[in-house]
Amino acid sequence: MFQSMNGYEEAVEFLPATDTKKVEKRGPKVKFVILGVVIAAALISLMVGLLVWHFAYRMARVQKVYTGNLRITNYVFKDAYENSSTTDFNDLAGKVTDMLKNLYTSNPDIAPHFSECRVTAFSEGSVLAYYWSEFSVPAYQEAKLDNAVLELKIQTVNLRQRTVLSVDSFEAYPVDAQLARTFRTSSCSYFLHAKPGEVTKFFTPGFPNTAYPPNMRCQWTLRADAGHVIRLNFKTFKMDICKTPAGDYVKLYDSLSIAENRLMMTLCGSYPPSYNLTFFSSQNVMMVTLVTDDKGRQPGFMAQFTQVPMTTLCGGMIRDSGGVITSPFYPAHYQANRECVWDIQVPGNKLVKLRFNMFYLMEPNNSDATCPKDYVEVNSKKYCGEKQSFVVSSDNNKMTVRFRSDLSYTDTGFTADYISYDAQNPCPDQFTCNDRKCINKARRCDGWNDCGDFSDELECTCTETQFRCVKSQICKPKYFLCDGVNDCGDNSDEANCGCPDNTFQCANKKCVPQAQKCDQTDNCGDGSDELGCPAVVPNSCSDLAYKCKNNECITKSNPECDSVKDCSDGSDEDTDTCNCGRRPYSRKTRIVGGVNADTGEFPWQVSLHAKNTGHACGASVVSPTILLSAAHCFQDAQGVRYSDPSLWTAYLGLHNQATRTTSTDVQQRSIKRIVAHKYFNDFSYDNDIAMLELSSPVTYSDFIQPICIPEKTHNFPVGKSLWVTGWGALTEGGSGASILQKAEIRIINYNECNQLLENQLTQRMICAGFVSGGIDACQGDSGGPLSSLESNNKMYLAGIVSWGDGCARRNKPGVYTNVTQLRDWIKQNAGL
Ligand code: 4AZ
Predict the structure, then answer these.
(1) What is the pTM of this model?
(2) Where is it chiefly localized (predicted)?
(3) Rounded to the nearest whole angstrom, what is the distance from the C-alpha of residue 557 to the centroid of ligand 1?
C-alpha cells in the first residue's frame, strides 16, 4: 500500500518554491472573489430574512373573533326576535350590524382589519342583541386591535348620533376564533324555550344509549318568558375526566354569547347523581356549550330546565333573636350579578353572632384575599373562597351581612345561622372561644384545637401527661413526642428524637445500624428499614419486599398498580389485579349538610342483611363473586345461626336502605358460602376477617366496583387519611343511617393506640380515628371497608371495621382488621 502511493507522488506537479511572482499575482484576486461572494451571500440572506419576516410575521394574519352584547333602549322585545328566520329579526339584526360596521370602520385601528359581523340572537331588556365580529389582523397588530375593540365600550355616546338605535351598553369579549367558527357552523345547535309549568329536557347526542361523539361542538340556547329566570339542573353528568387545557367539557353562560366574562361554570369529569348540580340564570336566557376531543368517550349528560319567576328578593330586615340566612337558592349555585343585604338587629342589650356552616364562594385561579369578585361582607370585613365553619360576631346589637356576586363564575354559596347572646355570658355553661364560638368546657386545655383559633389551648398549665410545644406554648399529650408526626406545628415535639450517627431511625423511632437498612431483614420491627430500597434482588425475597409472579423481589414501597413496571414480567401491573379501586364518579365532592356519601362514591360498599333483623353488617366487593367482611358478624349468638349463609342477603350498589328493593342501581345476592378466619378469637377479636361467596356473580357498574386488596408489603403510614363508611349507628347506642355515611379519619400510631386501649391490640389490628373522639365507626358498620386512596388514584382496603370501646369517645379510636397482615389468608381463601 505504501509503495503504490509513492508512485502517485511522482506524478504530482508542485508549484516551484522560487516562483514567487505567480503566488503574489493570484493572491489578491482570490481575496476579492471571496469577499464578493461573502457580501453577496450576506445581502441575499438579508433579503431572504426580510422577506421571511415580512411574510411570516408582518403579513401573517391572525383571525380574531369578539363576541358580546349591546342593549338597545328604543326598541321593545317581541317574540319574533327569538327566531332568526323572521323579518323582524333580520330587520333589527341588519340595523345592529350596520351600526357595528359603522363603528368599526370609523376607527383607524380597527377599520383595516374588519371582516364580518353577525347578530346571533336577541333577548329581553329592552332588547339585548348578541353578536360576533370577525377580524383578520397582521400578528404584530393584534394587541392594538384588541385594545381598540375593547375600548369601543366607552364610545357609546357616538353610537347614538350615527344610528337610529339607542344603545346604552356595549360589551365585547375576545373568543377563540376556531371555536367560535365551529360553534357557528355546527349542526348540533338547539333552541329551547321553557314552557310554563313544564320541565324541558336536553342531553348530549346519543344519550343514554351511546357515548357522545368525538370532536363535537354543540350549543343549547335556553330561554324563559320575560320576567322569569332559568333553573337548570343536570340529572346525569358523566363526561371524560377533566384535562387541561383541552379535553371534554361543558360550559354554562349567563348570556346568549360565549363570552368568558359571562361564564358561570365549566363542568367536566363525572358527578354522582346525588350531587346538586343546579344553576339559576340572572336573566331569562342561558347558553350551554359542549366541546369534546378525539378520545375518552363517556355517556354525557342529561339536563332539564324550568322557568321560575324572577325575584330580586333576598336579604332584608331581620328582627328575630335567631334564624338562618343563605345565599340565593342554596345549595344550588347562586346567580351571577346578585346583591343581598341582611340587616340584623336583636334587642338592645344583646349582641349578634353569625356562624357560617357552609361557605363556598370560590373563583377559579383567584386567591386574592381582598375578595375582588364574589364575597360576603360582615361588619365591613369581606370573606370569599372556600371555608370551614367559622363564626363572626358583632360588638353591638346590629349586624349587616352583604352577599355580592359578580358577572362570572358562581358557586354553591353559604348557609349561616345567627343568634343573639348576652355580652356578659356569650356561652352559658360552655367555654367561649376568641371568635365567640362556644365549646364544651372539658375541651379546654386538652391539647386539641377545638375553637379553630387555638384560643381554648392558650394560658393552660400542662398536666404531668402533657408537654408544652415551643412556639405555640400549647400543651399536648406526651405520647405525641417523637411519634413522627409534627403535632406542634413547629416540630418541637419531634426534635431531639434523632438517632446517633451511622444509625437509621425507623418509623417507630427505634435506631438501627445504618448497615441494616435495606439488608432484607426487618431490624426495625415495623419493616421501615426495608422500605424504599431501590434494588431488585432476584430470588431472595424478604417478607417486606413485594414478590413478583416470577419470584423477583421489589423493595420499592407500594409498587403494585402504580403504572410503573417494576417486575420484569410486569406482574406488578397485571391488568386484572389492577382493575380495582376505581370510583366512576371522579369529582371531588363537597359534603353539603352532613356526612352522607354520594351515590357511587364507595361502589365496593355492601350492606349485609340478616333475616328478620335488616342491615347488620357491612362488607366490601373484591371480585364479582367475593366479599370481604368481619368474622365477628358471622358468629352464632342468641339462638341465631349467623354462620348460616342462607340467613344473609347482600345488597350491592346500595345508597339508601329505603330503596334497596326499588333502586335499579342495586344488585341483590344471596350468600353461598361463608369462610370465617379459623383463628378468629371472639374474645380478643384477633383475625376478624371473613370471606363471603355470592350465589351468582354481580355485574360491575358505576355503583358496583371492587376495591383493591393491598399486598402484605403495602405501607399505610401513621397519620394517613382514610375513609370509613357504613349504615351503622349515628351515635353510640343510637339507630342506623338510611343513607350511606362516610367519615374521614386518620391512622393512629399502633403503640399509642395500644396504650389507650389497654394493650388489647394484636398485630392483626390497626387503629384509626381521632384521639379527641367525635368521628368513628359504630355498631352496624362492622365488616365494612376502611378505604385508602393511594398515589395511583385507586382505593385500597386498608382495614375492616372490627371493634371499639364505644363509639367516637375521646381516647378510644376505632379498631380495624389489618388487611395487609391477613393478605396470605385472603389469597388462600378468596384466591385473590
Ligand atoms: C360494633 O359494635 C362496633 N367505634 C364497630 C366499630 C366500633 C364500635 C363498635 C368502633 O360493630
Answers:
(1) 0.74
(2) membrane
(3) 31
